[in-house]
## 1
Amino acid sequence: MTDIVTALAETIGEKSVVTDHDIVSSYLTDWTGRFRGEAFCVVRPVNSKQVRDTVDLAKRFDVPLVAQGGNTGLVGGATPVKKAIILSTKLLSGIELDHDLQLAKVGAGVTLSALNAEAQKAGLKLGVDLASRDSATVGGMVATNAGGIHVIRYGGMRRQVLGIEAVLGNGRLISRMEGLEKDNSGFDWPSILCGSEGTLGVITQLTLKLVSVPRHRAVALVALHTLSAALAVMTEARRRLGGLSAMEFMTSNGIELVSNLDGAPWPFNNIPSISLLVEAAGEDDQMEKLAYFLDSLEDVVDAVMAGDSAADGLWYWRESHTLAISRKGVARKLDVSIPIRAIPAFVDDLTHLLENDYQQVKPILFGHLGDGNIHVNLLDVAEGDTGIEHRIYKMVSTYGGSISAEHGIGRAKVNELALTRSQDDIESMKSVKSALDPASVLNPGVLFV
Ligand code: MLT
Ligand code: ZN
């Protein structure tokens, strides 16, 4: 009897099926190094037909199929739980811009940086931006409903998708690529597939909205004593800082780790308990506006500012967190959402829990304050200890938050979903899953147990 790898090679061509052990193994570990899987082969389709053939064969042979983009996810969502075929979307390429309508038709495997490099020629960019921009693919960003650093201004990935093409787990090809701003003719596939983490379909192409690149921007790094003071800055910025485009917070543990990378000198004499990065962007010069805004605030201990291209120097402190943490070990990455007003109380409770019961654990908290999104990274957690995550997620649920703000559930949080989604909710999601992927070949073990 033919095996799955031979059948794939015969159907979509040997060139598109990789079995070389060294190459395959580079797809088997996630970015964090925490999750590993096994694969029969890696398939690299170049068009939707090949994707469809791959899905059909996975069904026929009853073999799991895991779609993988830039492999920059942080919850193991693109690393097989059971031995699988990995479908790399990287060769699903092509960028077609419509300058006037500010749209891009893009292959799912195009990286964010490649899309922006092309869009930049017309003064445009995608509204969503994140530190892994050089590797993260637009298909993966939609599959995980990526958030990033400008959600406060442009919203997350779901708000950028005007059209989608995907092969569903039932083998059907959905193609709604026209980019209609309005389309109420039934279910909205971009909304259904966005955030589905490869469990309903394999995204092959997208029509994405673009935004104009603001001519000027200014960034301030602000030193503060407390998170409550940071929230007060945010409330004022929402009210009075017209060009507000990012509001990110960092804590002293994270700044210390980034300082150890020796990439740049920390601009203040001391490391404050809270550092806030505030960005404003617009058509006119933003430096004066931002300086005026900061001058009017009471709780600011210290601040430095940089404009336009020099602003990247200040972003370095925020964007190097993930790398700096990974240099210290494999962190437990809890990416949670907390109702904004409750953030200081949540962080106090979390600090007490760790001080009382987990003294050896080093927490690094940072994230997108404007979105109520805290990245709780924990270093030095005892191997095999999952209790710590469960206790923190439970705490999140008592605050009315979510156990995943932007990274997704993946396989990391699959046993915790019921903490912040009801049974009716989960069962209804499972009904959607079994309707669109009846044989359950797409990413089994991710999102649902
Ligand atoms: C970020 O915002 O830098 C990443 O989503 C966070 C992380 O590494 O936990
Ligand atoms: Zn983030």
## 2
Amino acid sequence: MSQVGKAELYVKKIRNGTVIDHISAGYALDVLKILNVTGKETNTVGVVINVPSKHIGKKDIVKIEGGELKPEDVDKIALISPKATINIIHEYDVVEKKKVSLPRDITGIIKCGNPVCISNSKEPVSSLFHVQEVEPIRLRCHYCNRTMEKKDILKQF
Ligand code: CTP
Ligand code: ZN
């Protein structure tokens, strides 16, 4: 069995739920935070960190038995893991596979780190960032030019 095949032995296949695969290595716990998984829930959750991947060197995987992702969760995952794949599992089969997508402009998901930015004022202006770098992510605020890096983004989740 290949290295990649062996990685699958760390956590068994799930029956029904969601597998988030190809998470950037080391970010599985941040994905759990985005999903509000605290460990106090009753469903089974599998987490694999730093396994060899066919596509991206090393990767993390999160498997949530009985779990479903909200669209805003998928958008947040795209910010920290632009190559992540969301697999919907039904009776052990992958019935849907989609890659997360990072738009060139990001609106509303995170706040600008500049407290005096107009997007943080009482004006009805929602946040708007332009993606400058994808991995590691770097965003630039449309209104005040403040740069937001991965660590700044993670603090908000
Ligand atoms: N998986 C799982 N439980 C299942 C089916 C799949 O946990 N019942 C997991 C697999 O272990 C893998 C991911 O879901 O991590 C995607 O499964 P699959 O599409 O079969 O794997 P690959 O072909 O390797 O996926 P990709 O082409 O996206 O790399
Ligand atoms: Zn700003």
## 3
Amino acid sequence: MTVRGWVQTTRSSGKIAFVVLRDGTGYLQCVLSKAEVDEAVWEALRQLTQEASVAVTGTVRADERSPGGVELGVTGVTLLGASVDFPVTPKEHGTAYLLEHRHLWLRSRRQVAIMRVRHEVVQAIRDFFYERDFILVDTPILTGSIGETAGTLFETEYFDLGTAYLAQTGQLYNEAAAAALGKVYCFGPTFRAEKSKTRRHLTEFWMVEPEMAWYDSDDNMRLQEDFVSYIVARCLDRRAAELRELERDITPLERVTPPFHRISYDDAVAKLQTLGSDLRWGKDLGADDETLLANTFDRPVFVYNYPKAAKAFYMKEHPDDPRLVLANDCLAPEGFGEIIGGSQREDDHDRLLARIKQENLPLEAYGWYLDLRKYGSFVHSGFGLGVERTVAWICGIPHIREAIAFPRMLTRLYP
Ligand code: NSS
């Protein structure tokens, strides 16, 4: 048979030559014995360079030592596209260099494995919601209302209507859709002009956001733990080879089953202080706090009932303590930090109005959102899971820039 692909590696002893081919479905070891082929074929194969594209013809035979369990005994080779001095070699390159060559770096074995895990995560997300009768609603990317915080908006001119923003979230629109359809979700790219250069922040990232009518904060957390466990189990089941390629220790992932740990914000602050954090009540947890806290648990943990001042305007006030909101974050173990932010939504018209004013948000942009509290207001909750952070955690990679094909960051728009 003939296989077309790209040359990953070559190796030759003078009598026998090996080429590992990557064809997109996997890797194939091609073997050529000098004694058995024409001189021209031997030479052609020996001259192949990294990432040349080729068509290799030969006979498939079982070989336990080969990746995939088969190898190709080569009888013919056609060079389709030469590759001279491929810039990303097996030697170590600096991160800046690799990111500058992301379009080529993507072909390396690790990156291929990460992309396959990401693909599984995305499919698991869709399957989870489909199986539970959630309706997909695609929310707009160009929007007039600030979804999260005014501080991290990308703005663009919008004809005669003034400024449009790139969506930070689809949530507010989802809340409208939940009143029509019950349980909904949106899934797409979201944008934050984050000025921070951290391992966990991109300016464009993918977020999946379910929104459920009649769910309170506890229902919300139960759905989150089922959801995260489902995604992890799918990757363990169907992407074991990729996780092996990434040398991911899967023991901590195997523990990811419901119920997750739960700790109130109050208790989390007290615990963190005993662990040496200088976190003061009222502030959101920093990345170091998240790691410190999560390291005390053997599986993901929910931190719930945050101070109102640290969170977004739409969260429901705690019925017994007006300083708090019914919000939760989900922290992944092993130092990977927050993967989910969720909350029960403020369903009281006047309280929501007061919050919008308090936050100095432009009231005229929220008329439609307040309408949802005027016409059949309902208890509802939802959350957002960051795809890149989830993929980075499952793959065990320290920086989320490798969890998306072409990362967008403060200092990177190329390639
Ligand atoms: O800001 S969040 O905490 N919450 C929301 O956007 C809500 N509107 C979600 C909802 O209730 N429907 O972001 C949610 C998650 C967060 O936990 C991260 O996993 C991810 O989105 N996230 C990010 N990932 C990568 N880069 C950046 N900058 C980023 N910001 C949030």
## 4
Amino acid sequence: MSVVEQVLGRLDDTRAWQEPLYRDLHAHPELSLHEERTRALVAERLCALGCDVVEIGGGVVGVLANGPGPVVLHRADMDGLPVTEETGLPYASTDTAVDESGATVGLMHACGHDFHVASLLGAVELLAFEPGVWSGTFIALFQPAEENAAGAQAMLDAGLTSLIPRPDVAFGQHVLGHEAGVVGTQSGPVLSAGDSVRITVFGKGSHGSMPHLGVDPVVLAAAIVLRLQTVVAREVDPTDFAVLTVGSSTAGTKSNVIPDRATLLVNLRAYDVDVRARVIAAVERIVHGECAAAGSPQPPTFEYYDQFPLTDNEADVTATVTEAFRRHFGPDRLVPLGRIPASEDFSRVPDAFGTPYTYWGVGGFPAGQGVPNHSPFFAPLIQPTLDTGTEAIVVAALAYLGKDNQ
Ligand code: ZN
Ligand code: ZN
């Protein structure tokens, strides 16, 4: 019997608590940086499994030390979204919360982070129960606030790197719209870098009938919105990837008042740090130029937020994990992940340690019926999704920690 088969031999027992835990997590999502209930459930189970438990920066880390050998880190994210669930599942969330603006919002695990938590806890138990066949250290890291890109940084800012061993390799996974039971890997950039920027441009208020006495920020903002469309079309190499979207444009409240400012919310994505820098520079240059052209009385302001780093899978680690997946799942259950224009803050932790990493996808839906993440109808199949996510973590970890690989 292989080391992987031996460790996964207890999966029936693990599944018996994992599925109810998953349904409970799904029914009780929490907003980013408010994951108190989830964190307490995770910490309690990590303690029970004999991990050294560190609660830090809104997250919780379980360190399972098992003799000399490599240090492997796996990251799960814990937050839900302000989405009102419409799946109709018996364990659908009916919870609500008050968001930062004071509005009452529905809560939903519409991105599958409940799967990530349940899978990683299951993998910790499987590894903890078979210490004889592997050697080294397994770190299970549960981060808050992936959805707003704040959680990994919060843990780092609180001193994570001095509280846990430096990992030799790091992993993350995400439930996606692929067929359930399938895993997807890929070397190189797989998730884009993402930036949001709030741009405020200034005009001079006036009566709607007397535009010559003011500077109209509505016309200025409109010119900027159109001119920004040339950034990707005219300034980015056609063989490179970038997306620029103006998601919001607001100014004024009445038809007969020229307001004194306008605000644009712009979202940027790229798979390359140089492309990203070029797009940001072009946006700022165009906004400054249009403000000058309009006679704006005050320089524009740029407030960057929700900034996600690039997820760029290291080649050797990805090859090792892909081969381990091929052996365990078989070639039919292994697909190329492809590039996904969404973004993640997973890479911040390995980058802070200088650790190579790979991030893979786990399918969660009947073939051809995938629902996009963040949809109110995002209802992955519990099985085989949960087993696949749990097995993937164990298989990838044992590719480094298994005594047959050392
Ligand atoms: Zn998400
Ligand atoms: Zn997600």
